[in-house]
Each structure stands twice: as structure tokens, then as C-alpha cells.
Write a structure and sequence with these properties.
The chain is of the alpha/beta class. About 45% of the residues lie in helices and about 15% in strands. Helix 6 (about 140-150) links the parallel strand 5 (about 130) and strand 6 (about 155-160).
Length: about 250
């Protein structure tokens, strides 16, 4: 496998005449030298969603059509309490889920809440990594995400945007402190990525685009991957960041 896009979403606004299928997605990714992707839900990331099961099932059904290349991330809202914990257990038991995607800003919960801690504790127990939307104060500061690395040292926490354009230094410093804090390079510009790559071990870095699978030829796919590949590094470092980090989180 050449590369894994660790930040995509199922669905979106379909391009006219385009069918959102795993095969078409892989063809699109392949145009950019990307062989696989982690796919998260979309509608479940909004606060109005309380029944996450149908969309989680849709994610894993979609990915099952391209095993070993497409990987599903489940979603719950920690605020719903025990049903969220039950759904995490179900996805682990049914699909061997490896990643939970959370968007505190859209879902309307605090990373510092007791409900979040219960989710983090369960994910640590089950070996499920948590991928956060980050970089949007006040809900999703990278340091709020990194706090979970301190309190749950066996939990893998992923900053899905590495602080975006403004908070990448905080994300970088947190990754230097916590080896279980992973940065997905999906937001910082080239100069920031260059400093991050020089300062954080490659095994704590991966790459994502934040595309929607139904929106083929979205220029963000080209922009995010071209930006990363413009950063100079040796081939082994690039291989680890583009492929190895993601596959290790996914248990491959």
C-alpha cells in the first residue's frame, strides 16, 4: 500500500452523474497515489443525532466492499451516556472497530466532561483510538485533546487537523510530550508541516484530506496531499507518515 488518507467522510453532496461507490473512491484516491482511507460518518457528527447505529452500519458496510483498503470509524455522542458506550462495544464486537471519530464542536460536548472520560476509558480498554476534529476553540483545542493522553496513557488520541492553521504549535508541543498523541496533517500549511516533521517522530504523524466520498474532484484532495508532498524529507520518513502510522493504528 502506497499511502492512507486518514481523514475522510462518507457521503456529502454528490457530483452530477457520479456514483459514490468504494470502487470509484479508490480510483479517485489512486489518482493522487493514495491506496486506502479511513472513512468516518458525516450526519452522526451533528448534535441532533442520537441514533448512531444506522450510520455506523453504513460505514462498515461500505468499507467491507474493499477490505484492507477502506477502513471504517464509528461515531457516537458522549452526551447520550450509556447508549454511547453500548454502541462502541457493539461496533467493536461486530466490526472490530479500531477508531472512534468525535467532533466536539458540532456535537456540542466538552472534551473535559465526565461523559468524555467514560468514553475514553472504554476506548482505552477496548484498544480503540479516538480521532478528534481539533483546532476550533473553545471546544476542540489540541491541548484539550492531549489532556486525554495524560489521563489515559494507553489510549491513542489523534488530532484530526493538527490544530488547523492557528494552533499547530500547541499540537506539535503536545505530541513531543505524549507519545500516544498522533497528529494528522490535515490543516497546517507547508511551513508549519515542515517544522512539525522536523520536530515530531514520524510514527506520530499521518496525513488526511477531509474529503467527502461523494464529491469527486474536490480540490481539497489535491491541495492537502500536494501540500504535504511539497515538504522535503527522506523516503523512509515519508513512508512512515503516509502509510505506516495509519496502518499501525488500524491494526494492520
Amino acid at each position: 500500500m502506497r499511502a492512507v488518507d486518514f481523514h475522510t467522510h462518507l457521503g456529502g453532496s454528490p457530483r452530477p452523474g457520479y456514483q459514490d461507490t468504494p470502487q470509484n473512491l479508490l480510483e479517485w484516491l489512486g489518482e493522487y497515489g493514495v491506496d486506502g482511507a479511513l472513512i468516518s460518518p458525516l450526519n452522526s457528527l451533528y448534535s441532533g443525532c442520537t441514533d448512531h447505529r444506522p450510520e455506523n452500519d453504513a460505514i462498515f458496510e461500505y468499507c467491507s466492499q474493499a477490505p484492507g483498503r477502506l477502513f471504517g470509524a464509528l461515531c457516537v455522542n458522549p452526551l447520550i451516556g450509556n447508549p454511547a458506550l453500548d454502541e462502541i462495544r457493539r461496533c467493536k464486537d461486530t466490526y472490530n472497530a479500531k477508531v472512534l471519530k468525535l467532533h466536539p464542536w458540532l456535537q456540542g460536548f466538552s472534551i473535559t466532561s465526565q461523559e468524555m472520560d467514560k468514553v475514553a476509558e472504554l476506548c482505552q480498554e477496548l484498544g480503540i483510538a479516538i480521532l478528534f476534529h481539533d483546532g476550533t476553540p473553545m471546544y476542540t483545542h489540541p491541548l484539550q485533546c492531549a489532556r486525554l493522553c495524560r489521563d489515559f496513557p494507553k489510549l491513542t488520541v489523534i488530532a484530526g487537523h493538527t490544530g488547523l492553521g492557528d494552533l499547530w504549535r500547541e499540537a506539535m508541543l503536545a505530541a513531543q510530550r505524549y507519545s500516544n498523541f498522533i497528529l494528522c496533517l490535515c490543516g497546517p500549511r507547508e511551513a508549519a508541516m515542515r517544522e512539525i516533521v522536523e520536530s515530531v517522530p514520524a510514527k506520530q504523524l499521518c496525513v488526511g484530506s477531509d474529503i467527502f466520498t461523494a464529491e469527486r474532484n474536490d480540490p481539497v484532495m489535491w491541495f492537502r496531499w500536494a501540500s504535504f508532498r511539497s515538504v522535503e524529507m527522506d523516503q523512509e520518513t515519508r513512508r512512515v507518515i503516509e502509510t505506516e502510522t495509519a496502518l499501525k493504528i488500524l491494526g494492520r
